[in-house]
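So, can you check this one?
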Amino acid sequence: MAKHKLPPWLLPKPQRRAVKVGVTWYTEDQWRLIRAASTDAERFEETYAEWVAMLEESTKNMLAAGIVTERIPVIASELLAWCLAHGKENNAAARSQCVSEQLSRRHERDA
């Protein structure tokens, strides 16, 4: 007996593997210190509460797009030491790279 094939639109969709990214997470005190020491303070929201609201909205939008976020706590003294060790300014690109490296180390350790 011949098997019937389902039309393509009825076939189960392959499961997409979720993408995971690290996002910076600051306490209010650390946010103030990092903002004050940054070379791009104008890119920060005016208040910590505004920054938290922006982060929550962004992570909600990323999740809707299939991107899972992991909050990576950032300590000002550690970030500034990392910047110094890597010859970077405390700016958005450096903060992002630092968090990405922390997430990678965390996953290597947990593997």
